[in-house]
Design brief:
- The protein is mostly helical.
- It has one domain.
- The chain is 77% helix and 3% strand.
- The protein has 15 helices and four strands.
- The strands form two sheets. It has a two-stranded antiparallel ribbon. Strands 3-4 form a two-stranded antiparallel ribbon.
- A hairpin with a 3-residue loop joins strand 3 and strand 4.
- Helix 4 packs across helix 5.
- The longest helix is centred in the middle third of the chain and has 32 residues.
- The radius of gyration is 20 Å and the shape is globular.
- The termini are far apart.
Length: 334
Amino acid sequence: MVLDLVPLWTALLALAVFYYVVFDGFDLGVGMLYGLMPGEAARRIAMSSIAPIWDGNETWLVFGGIGLMAAFPLAFAIIIPAVYFPILMMLLALVFRGVAFEFRFKHPAVRRFWDGAFCGGSLVATFAQGVVLGAFIQGFKVEGRHFAGTSFDWVAPFPLAIGLALMFGYGLLGAGWLILKTEGDLQRWARRAGQVCLIAVLAAILAVSLWTPETHADIARRWFSWPDIALLAPVPIITALIAGGEWYALRSRHELLPFLGAVGLFLMSFIGIAISLWPMIVPYHYTLWQAASSPSTQAFLLIGTLLLLPVILMYTAWSYWVFRGKVGDSAGYH
């Protein structure tokens, strides 16, 4: 009997995507909020809060991309050509953002330029990720085992709207991080920014919840037919409760809850997308099992993954433990 490794690889990829969204999401959110912050001191503190950990967060992006290519090669071969330009935009923006991060501290004479590059790179990378997600949910034109659309199919209302929505979502994560890591005026500013982002995020969740069933009959049947509507009712209910808790946390003196609430909203949105599309990995053409590599290939790759994954988790946890606590005005990047 051949062991079915597709559920395990699906869980590993889901873990990588969610970890990337949370960990790189908050530092991209800080980068986008960076351009709106009041004064040089606030910007310096904000950048110092993510300086020790921002590059390690992108480990999950690499893990997810390699895992998709190795475990689900058919999905990789169809999805990547469909969203080639948004992915290229994202990678270039991340590179430019990383360069700006380093040079801002080392070339004070042109700091204003690098500040703009850091903020702009964060914004473009986030928007591009949202476009990729929107294009994925929208679906691809496929003939046989190949992408049959154009390089600009992603230029459509739904992917562009998701790109905009993700900017506010990452902004909410970034505001939660700043509330957790800073004090005084910057923390109060982050609370106000978080409230604005939360309102936009909730509007986006509502819009997507209505938009996708309207355009995809299968999704509508999954959510609104009996008895599914009763079985899946906890998802919107829990989301609403988390949203209420997040609003309360942003307006109170809690410091950890705003960040946890933002993570909770992303988790519920992630679950909602998974429910809508399951078991598709190339919506609405190929399932996870149809797109998977051979069992022997998955088993071979799994050996290395199970050895590497604990190392990634340990050094991630260690880095956050070492750099725990508040960031003061005297903190710098070394």
